[in-house]
Amino acid sequence: MLEVHWGSGSPFAWRVLLALEIKKIPYTSRLIEFSKQQHKAPEFLALNPRGKVPVIKDGDFTLSESLAILAYLDRKVTEPPLFGRTPEETGRIWRAALETINYLEPLADRIVSPLYFNKTAEKGDDLKAAIAPMHDELKRIEGVLSRSRWLAGEAVSAADIVAHPTIESLLRAAGKEAAKAFDLGLLPLERHYPAIAAWRERIRALPGYERTYPPHWRAAPQPVAAA
After folding, report:
1. Residue 81 phi, psi dihedral angles, 5° rounding
2. For residues 212 and 11, is the Cβ–Cβ distance under 8 A?
3. Which of 164, 214, 158 is nearest to 189 (CA)?
4. pLDDT at position 226, please?
5. Are 34 and 61 in contact (CB under 8 A)?
């Protein structure tokens, strides 16, 4: 059976878990605990010398990097397709996924990392500078989802799988106590971005979604702040 090595809260690993559930691919979960430095253990470094999740092991084949894993899973089990059925669909899905990776994700990291790791004193100015362009990206996504149920068409795809964990990380960061010092303008999501909020609920309603949810987030739920 395919093994997936992942870490709780890693948006990159979350993509792979979502893909496995959407495609109904049986897998063995190997949860890596960062706090115990398991990602630096020799047995894990033998799978990925970079010491990063996710990693899958499928028989004798081992693969890291979330986008590469999504592509592999899509060829392994063709239904439902994550990257479309036609050249046009494939192009739109890759474009939407890469827009998240190239534009939203770097901005989200500048906001999420200081709030997650108590670095707002050192990185507060950079966090503030990332807020406006982050909203520009979210407004673009809001526009897409105002016209379509999913980010790249009428079916869930790799574009949604890539974007969802990044947006969830932003929302969790926005609910932290330290975020009150910054005007993030994200919560409640349905007030600021109703189309994204509705899309988020569609993702959360997918079969198997609960199995992908970061366990340490469930153990310590983040309050939803007013904005």
Report:
1. -70, 140
2. no
3. 164
4. 41
5. no
pLDDT at residue 219 in the model = 73
- For 59-102, write each residue's pLDDT tens digit: 999 999 999 999 999 999 999 999 999 999 999 999 999 999 99
Q: Which two tokens stand for residue 14?
A: 């979350």
Structural element, H or E, at residue 99 = helix 87-99
pTM passes above 0.70: yes
Contacts of 121 (CB under 8 A, 6+ apart): none
Q: What region, left, alpha or beta, does residue 185 occupy, with left being phi > 0 and alpha being psi -120 to 50 degrees?
A: left
How do 55-58 and 27-32 pair as beta strands? unpaired
Where does residue 123 rank: exposed (0-12), middle (13-18), buried (19+ CB within 10 A)? middle
Q: Residue 192 and residue 65: Cα distance in Å, rounded? A: 32
Give 195's contacts (C-beta < 8 A, 6+ positions apart): 142, 143, 145, 146
56 DSSP β-pair partners: 4, 63
Q: Are strands 61-64 and 27-32 parallel, antiparallel or unpaired?
A: unpaired
pLDDT for the residue 182: 96
Given a cut of 50, the residues of the chain with pLDDT beneath it are 223-227
d(CA 20, CA 25): 5
